[in-house]
């Protein structure tokens, strides 16, 4: 069904050139897939070259004639992003579509993180989006028709999510950037789409980093991110995002829960904040006497019961993250977590 929906829009993007940062795994990989289905030539960028190689294999397995380039790139380095855009334009005859998707996820109570985690989140997601946007705009303006730029935010950028504070702060900045660019560039040759997904089954729990009560934090995050009740199939999400970019929509919010949360926060922010505070009380507390001792990659705590020491949390993880674990195997989430990789 998703494939049919994608192909119904294929003609309007056929022959265009696209760049996806954070395109080697998870949502970024599926965004690249949807662009290929619509007939685009696609450059996927991320930091890990081995991961990029596996991503290219994934994208060309069922479509050997697909025009896919890979480009190692750290979006926190503007010069590297500038080189990415220049080489993509040279190889593909210009750039028509750019999706800024690179990101990191840090899951921990504020007591277990420090200023470095906030800085890392802002440099990767916000400054990464700034670098991508500013370096892409000159190419998008001179493309074959009006260019399209999309910035991947999050429901966490519409309201602060407990135990995801650096992520929420960075995504909030991305939301403001997308809205401001849309306002200033409207009618000037580039459409800008702000994308705010809710939870999706991308296997991101293995690439995320966890602090505090690590096993329990991993349990609740992987359980919610994999639950069909509150999360969304990632391929369906990617189809809807690329369709929104194709149709030049200013904003798209995915999942009913994300839409409800964003609407409620906009209408009654004080109420939403109180409800978030109640939710925070149900989340794991850091161990007594612990401090900001660093974060641990989800791939290292995936075995749950053996590593976490919390059998109840492990059972919760096993119940809720089965779909997410399968998504991780499909969507190239096995490699070492790297900032700027998406």
From the spread of the alpha carbons, the general shape counts as globular
Q: Classify the secondary structure makeup into a structural class.
A: alpha/beta
Return residue spans where pLDDT drops below 50 for at least 5 consecutive residues.
Answer: 1-11, 303-310, 335-342
Do you know the CATH topology? Rossmann fold
Our Rg estimate from Cα atoms comes to 19 Å
- Major beta sheet, strand line-up: 3-2-1-4-6-7-11
Instruction: Provide the helix percentage.
Output: 40-55%
- Estimated share of beta-strand residues: 5-15%
Q: Main beta sheet, described?
A: 7 strands, parallel
Count of helical regions: 16
CATH class: Alpha Beta
Work out the number of β strands.
12
Care to give the gist of this entry?
With 342 residues, the chain is an alpha/beta fold. The protein has helices at 2-7, 10-13, 26-37, 49-61, 78-92, 115-141, 165-185, 204-207, 214-226, 234-246, 256-267, 269-282, 298-301, 305-308, 311-320, 322-330; strands at residues 17-21, 41-46, 68-72, 97-100, 106-107, 147-152, 190-196, 200-201, 209-210, 232-233, 251-253, 296-297.
